[in-house]
């Protein structure tokens, strides 16, 4: 059988989407037409989530109604907390989160209602509840008691409150919101496509998001933000960064936080996230990590001409915000769940089962030998 096989579906246009557009030639990323850099500079993550789901930035009344719904449904049941508490202490928080999303689905009586309004309500519920689960995971790994959500606080401030028992300086909150806005949506990336594949079978939104969490965990995708910080801690001294990177490349190893399937001449989001990292470093005395960032970036460009992706500045920025490394990919989930759920709804609006073909390379047909 001769077939035009595109390994990894590279370059394949699988469907249309009206949610975001990635234009690598102009280093542009827009959500519903708006440049992500402008959104990051001027809007809250709640406004951007509304834009991603509903196609427009909310006016004052729509934002007030949305934030009221979000604040009212942050709490999760004792049974979800109980399930989370039963996963092994030493498991990765992404395992815990995958289990928690599945449990939220099992608890929702409208789990299998795939009508648009029902799925929009589920998307909002996941947006409100996942930070509560993730903050619990953060405190559990530190042996600390859970802190309940505070409906008097905005989405990001409440998350820090649930993690650390306090709300940080507005500058820290802003850097965090910038990371959430930049991570929210990126067309048919691996985890979003996974969610669309699951949705295309007419399964439920929670199953699709559970699968997407699993896809995001991998170090070639969302797991890279953790790998970046592990790498930086291993290097320890910015003056060693160039030699360290060249040794990795000589050993034919990949360096996490570099390269991208779509952006080959730089990731459109990196300058904005790097500026947030620089702000975090100035606030916390962490300039060493910015120097290391720049040494690694320079050495990689010289050696291979490969640019950093969004995970490269996000990893050290989360470290400087005080999060443990295994929490970095769950932070990515808190944001990308907006994109995933918007894509699930879009997939169902014009559904076709996603089922590509394969070119068989096994043995030719042969008779089964007589049983001995
Ligand atoms: C939010 C996100 O998910 S962004 C992506 C996060 N992932 C990472 O940072 C992991 C590291 N990066 C990578 O593995 C890759 O760049 C990917 C998977 C993201 C994209 O890769 P692809 O488009 O499939 O390209 P592929 O992996 O085939 O790389 C092409 C060439 O560049 C090299 N290359 C790409 N990325 C890297 C890297 N990070 N380190 C070293 N070499 C790299 C490959 O070795 C390959 O070289 P070769 O042609 O000599 O064999
Ligand atoms: O688009 C991709 O392939 C990876 C991704 O999710 C992102 O860059 O945000």
UniProtKB/TrEMBL annotation:
GO CC aspect terms: cytosol
Keyword Acetylation attributed = no
Key word Acyltransferase present: yes
User: Which InterPro entries does the record associate with it?
Assistant: 2-MeCitrate/Citrate_synth_II, Citrate_synth-like_lrg_a-sub, Citrate_synth-like_sm_a-sub, Citrate_synthase, Citrate_synthase_AS, Citrate_synthase_bac-typ, Citrate_synthase_sf
- From the UniProt record, give one GO term of the biological process aspect: carbohydrate metabolic process
Q: Which reaction does it catalyse?
A: oxaloacetate + acetyl-CoA + H2O = citrate + CoA + H(+)
Q: What would you give as a GO molecular function for this chain, any one?
A: citrate synthase activity
Q: In which pathway does it act?
A: Carbohydrate metabolism; tricarboxylic acid cycle; isocitrate from oxaloacetate: step 1/2
Name the active site residues.
Answer: 260, 311
Q: Which domain of life is it from?
A: Bacteria
Q: Which UniProt keywords apply?
A: Acyltransferase, Transferase, Tricarboxylic acid cycle
The Swiss-Prot or TrEMBL record describes its family as follows: Belongs to the citrate synthase family.
Q: What is this protein called?
A: Citrate synthase
Q: Which organism is it from?
A: Glycomyces terrestris
